[in-house]
From TrEMBL:
Keywords assigned by UniProt, alphabetized: Oxidoreductase
Residues annotated as the enzyme's active site: E267
Entry GO MF terms: glutarate-semialdehyde dehydrogenase (NADP+) activity; succinate-semialdehyde dehydrogenase (NADP+) activity
The name this protein goes by in its record: Succinate-semialdehyde dehydrogenase/glutarate-semialdehyde dehydrogenase
Transmembrane segments: none
Cytoplasm keyword on record: no
Matches recorded under InterPro entries: Ald_DH/histidinol_DH (IPR016161), Ald_DH_C (IPR016163), Ald_DH_CS_GLU (IPR029510), Ald_DH_N (IPR016162), Aldehyde_DH_dom (IPR015590), Aldehyde_DH_Superfamily (IPR050740)
Sequence ranges assigned to domain Aldehyde dehydrogenase in this UniProt record: 30-491
Organism: Kaistia dalseonensis
Family: Belongs to the aldehyde dehydrogenase family.
EC identifiers of the protein: 1.2.1.16, 1.2.1.20, 1.2.1.79
Pfam families: Aldedh
Length: 495
């Protein structure tokens, strides 16, 4: 019986989390780190320690790469139909265990259960989608312009992949990489975030149960992500780095990967504009803003970070948004009524507080919230700020919390210029009653993803990713996600 089966009854109580942290997952085996050191996992709603996980060393990382290398040939030659069926089984098991997984995510990340349930459904969908893609990988066949030979293009698994993921979507950021990598025929080492490792280990046990062979997926946690990742990238058998996290760490990893000319996919930070034109449906724009801002309590790379509202609708929008934000129930994620959970760490709360103080010092007005509540845990009250000036730090930096900064604008060109005034380019949102204008503005806003009259863009069937310093490459979508884990091989054929 594996850890998932042992915990199938795990309901809304923390239960025995030790079962989710019994070792590094290497070569289908659970083992302590080479030194026996551990990393504490903290409940952000109380600050108390929930569990501890092994702290991997360079030797452990080498063992994980070795295991992935040993499994590589068997997995790349496994029939696509068989790979597809295993991925499909991963999807089914995730759906069967969704309540347990959502509770676990909610415990270690702090997010509201309703958000955690949404994440599990989204994360599982990457397995279903890639199970369908695994049997549709095709090549190309053509004739050379000179007529001398045929051109055959074969798509092959790129090789061993190192996957590094953040804490804000502990399940989905991992499955968005693992599922296409496995569909393509690659073996992987996942390094999840230190704050939320339990979900990654729970999923590893689930993959094993679904039939993923030993060594195909390896999971290691470490408090030294820089040296451990660098050591894995230095192994010549590693050919891919797929990273989701901050732009700063992404830059460091791109430099590290450059030393070995390793293919990189980078899903980095965001600073999404949310533009509301006068002709937008007010209630729909408010619904969309609440989703775009408050999914995951604002701890999302796609979160609306700058809300630009045209003058004619501004005051009604500000009033409606403040009413909705102030009414949100703040509490521990695992409590059924909670709508806004804690932030991930005290440091994250301090950053949000600093950004709000900076904005108010520069003239922004607090319409609701704006404070750190007393008591245990890492909470920040849902906040709406009006008249946030363009030079406020939060106009440039990710807030990553439940703070909605409003600014007024007059013209379409002003809205576009302000939306593009950032180094980031991940998501953007536009609300207007004129679809022609919506499409026109969408074509000029510099972002990889646009929500037009829609506050949610994430969809496994659509290519997810950013432009500018928000990243390189795409995850999900028809062929896009899987293509990141394949390499084209061209064969010139004379016959
Ligand atoms: P982070 O600090 O960049 O960490 C992300 C991952 O990188 C973690 O596993 C972390 O490990 C690891 N890491 C940290 N320093 C490293 C280094 N020098 N070398 C190798 N790995 C290193 O980001 P985060 O705070 O976890 O996540 C929030 C950020 O992720 C935000 O900027 C958000 O916008 C972005 N994000 C982007 C997307 C997207 O799809 N574009 C999706 C979600 C989140 P430790 O946990 O051990 O430090």
């Amino acid at each position: 019986m594996n850890v998932i089966q042992q915990n199938a009854q795990f309901a809304n109580e923390p239960g025995d989390l030790g079962a989710f942290s019994k070792g590094l997952y290497i070569d289908g085996d659970w083992r302590p780190s080479a030194t026996g050191a551990v990393i504490a996992v903290v409940d952000p709603s109380t600050g108390a320690t929930l569990a501890s996980v092994p702290d991997a060393t360079l030797d452990d990382a080498a063992a994980a790469v070795e295991a992935a290398a040993r499994a590589a040939e068997g997995w790349r030659t496994t029939a696509p139909r068989k790979r597809s069926e295993i991925l499909r089984r991963c999807f089914e098991l995730m759906i069967e265990r969704s309540e347990m997984l959502a509770t676990l995510i909610s415990l270690e990340n702090g997010k509201a259960l309703r958000d955690a349930r949404g994440e599990v459904a989204y994360a599982a969908e990457f397995f279903r989608w890639n199970a369908e893609e695994a049997v549709r990988i095709s090549g190309e066949f053509g004739i050379s312009p000179a007529g001398t030979n045929r051109i055959v293009v074969d798509y092959q698994p790129i090789g061993i992949c190192v996957l590094v993921t953040p804490w804000n979507f502990p399940a989905a950021m991992a499955t968005r990489k693992i599922a296409p990598a496995l569909a393509a025929g690659c073996t992987v080492i996942l390094k999840p975030a230190s704050e939320t490792p339990l979900t990654a280990y729970a999923l590893a046990a689930l993959y094993e149960e679904a039939g993923v062979p030993p060594g195909v997926v390896n999971v290691i946690t470490t408090s030294s992500p820089g040296p451990v990742t660098a050591a894995m990238l230095a192994d010549p058998r590693v050919r891919k780095l797929s990273f989701t996290g901050s732009t700063g760490v992404g830059r460091t990893l791109l430099a590290e990967a450059a030393k070995h000319v390793i293919s990189c996919s980078m899903e980095l930070g965001g600073n999404a504009p949310f533009i509301v034109f006068d002709d937008a449906d007010l209630e729909e724009a408010l619904d969309g803003a609440m989703i775009a801002k408050m999914r995951n309590a604002g701890e999302a790379c796609t979160a609306a970070n700058r809300i630009y509202v045209q003058s004619g609708i501004h005051d009604a929008f500000a009033e409606g948004l403040s009413r909705r934000m102030a009414a949100l129930k703040v509490g521990a994620g695992r409590e059924a009524a909670t709508e806004c959970g804690p932030m991930i760490t005290r440091k994250a709360v301090d950053k949000i507080d600093r950004l709000v103080k900076d904005a108010t010092d520069r003239g922004a007005r607090i319409l609701c919230g704006g404070t750190v509540p007393d008591g245990a845990g890492f909470f920040y009250l849902p906040t709406v700020l009006a008249d946030v000036p363009p030079d406020a730090e939060m106009a440039r930096e990710e807030i990553f919390g439940p703070v909605a900064p409003l600014s007024r604008f007059e013209t379409e060109s002003e809205a576009i210029a302000r939306a593009n005034d950032t180094e980031y380019g991940l998501a953007a949102y536009i609300y207007t009653g004129d679809v022609g204008r919506g499409l026109r503005v969408a074509s000029r806003v510099e972002a990889g993803m646009i929500g037009l009259n829609r506050g949610l863009v994430s969809d496994p069937a659509a290519p997810f990713g950013g432009v500018k310093q928000s990243g390189l490459g795409r995850e999900g979508g028809q062929h896009h996600g899987i293509a990141e884990f394949m390499e084209a091989k061209y064969i010139a054929v004379d016959f």
